[in-house]
Amino acid sequence: MPLSFLRRPRWLACLFLLTALIAGGRAFHLDDQARIWLRELTLSEAERAASIWLPGYQAVIQAKPLAGLDEDETSDLSYSPTSGTLFTVTGRNPKLVELSLSGEVLRSIPLRGFANPEGVAVLADGHLAITDERRRTLAIFTLDAQTREIDVAQTQEIDLGFPDSGNKGFEGVAWDPARQRLLLGKERSPLSVFSWPGNGATRFAGRMQPLPNDSLGLRNLSALSVDPRTGHTLVLSAQSRLLLELDEEGEPVSFISLIGGFNGLDNSIPRAEGVAIDEQGTIYMVSEPNLFYVFRRGGEAAAEG
């Protein structure tokens, strides 16, 4: 019997193992993360110091249930520097929900006439914006301590286009105060990020302009946030299970893996749907089913709120 025949099962076993490793890596989206990790290695110390630098972050609050929202599905997250609080929206029973920085529900405001709110952004001068994926609109309105409900008919509602997007429309929205522009992220098919110049209130100039996104390498886009310190953008992807930092030119800088065992996470984040960052650099995240997370540089103690 030829010796090659005896060796064949070993080669087949190695081939099977290699195939399994590749398939497993794709299942956990490690191929996306490995590509960005290789880019991280090329950054100088000066470039890292001038960035958010996500590898230095650790989870300090994990999977905290958002009380009273058991039957809702939270989506997106935005930080208000004026109130020092966070805002998210729910889709199943449309609401705008205000949270403390430690994940306590402060108030829930019904959204009348909204079909599927997916994104929320704190703008300027008391204005907020909500994207409705099913209606394909952006609704702009003012909010104060006396607001008890928000009726879409009383907002400034703008058609975002893409009539054939279905359930793959605009999920991410974030205000960039330094550049005076609104960023809007289309979930997929195709995944896109748009820039729209404006005054952070009721006036936006011209049309949305697509930004380069060939280097993102993400499977979907769940949320956007702009760091007020560096001007860098955070892009959240539930399907790729990562949070990506982009520089001013839209190039990847660093990332956080949302898989258990990385960045201090005990368990994987189930489906990350919203991210926000404050002026101290603390990162906040919400995930289905209504879980709250906080990440801090070096894992410092969590904020009180």
Can you walk me through this structure?
With 305 residues, this protein is mostly beta strands. The chain has a single domain (3-297), classed as 6 Propeller (Neuraminidase). The protein has helices at 3-27, 30-40, 45-49, and strands spanning 57-65, 74-80, 85-90, 95-99, 105-112, 117-122, 127-132, 137-142, 150-151, 156-159, 170-176, 181-186, 192-197, 209-211, 223-226, 233-237, 242-246, 252-257, 271-277, 283-288, 291-297.
Number of alpha- plus pi-helical segments: 3
- Give the overall shape, derived from the CA principal axes: globular
Helix content: 10-25%
Strand ordering within the main sheet: 2-3-4-5-9
Average pLDDT value?
A: 85
CATH top level is Mainly Beta
Per DSSP E runs of 2 or more residues, the count of β-strands stands at: 21
The SS-based structural class is mainly beta
Q: How many separate domains?
A: 1
Strand-residue fraction?
A: 35-45%
Q: Could you give the order of the helices and strands?
A: HHHEEEEEEEEEEEEEEEEEEEEE
> What is the C-alpha radius of gyration, as a whole number of Å?
21 Å
Key words describing this protein structure:
disordered N terminus; four-stranded antiparallel sheet; Neuraminidase; mainly beta
